[in-house]
Design brief:
This protein has two domains: 184 residues, Rossmann fold (3-Layer(aba) Sandwich), CATH 3.40.50; 111 residues, Rossmann fold (3-Layer(aba) Sandwich). Helices cover 39% and strands 21% of the residues. It has eleven helices and 13 strands. The strands form three sheets. The chain has a six-stranded parallel beta sheet, sandwiched between helices. Strands 9-8-10-11 form a four-stranded parallel beta sheet, sandwiched between helices. It is globular, with a radius of gyration of 19 Å.
Length: 301
Amino acid sequence: MNLDSNNSTIMKRSIIMNGPGRSKWQQEAKLMSSKAPIGVFDSGVGGLTVVKEIMRQIPGETIVYFGDTARLPYGSKSKETIIKYTRQIVRFLMTKGVKAIVIACNTASAFALETVKAEIDIPIIGVVKPGAKVAAETTKNGYIGVIGTEGTIQSGIYNEFLSKTNPQVKVFGKACPLFVPLVEEGLIDDPITFEMARRYIADLLEQDIDTLVLGCTHYPLIRKTIRKIVGDNVELVNPAYETAKSLKEVLLEKGLENDNTLSLDHRFYVSDGAEKFKRFANTILPCEVLETKDVNIENYS
């Protein structure tokens, strides 16, 4: 395994194989530094909405981002495949000496978070639980809509978390499989995106929802389009804000928060289309992305 140096902090990580098909990563930390970066990943550009919120709420943190652009969308893939992808990406991020990981993908959070959490010993959080929490606190009439990928909606994970938070709420889910490809193609303010959003959301509006969870990190990028359709009487919940807040709490609890805002070396990696990703990232993030590197993520199996 690689030895990573991060501001004179040496992080040694080893991999333990527990039988065929099972991987467990164990960190042997000589010293865990608060200056180590945060690892964030998603199937593509959607996770940048979470990165943007982390940069706003915790400006002292350095980000290492991975977008699995070669294998998106995640929403139509099996749980077993998503766990495999997540393990590969976590392994890659750990070679970068990260002190914590954010799964900025609802599908991976739903299918793989609990599995991978048991296999590494650095903090790792997803986006589903924070989003469900704020939705339960926001609704007034108890009728909550959730839009997400097929995988996220079929998993029922939002229903599970919302019911635990408030057993009185009624949850109405709607899979929106075309949103991710439309966003990845840059069709943010496009008539096709508006028409698909109108079709997807119409059924939820008939249920008299007063709160709508944007249950995929790509969806805040078309928030304005969704707002036009739902009107002003439906609260839109973007889990990115609450996820960044949860991350900050975890870092404080572990004594890992970095308050240095000077010379932050954010790094961005993708599994395909680095230049396209870089152009898109520079329209979203508050910092300039000077370089994005391609990674053969299959090498981290």
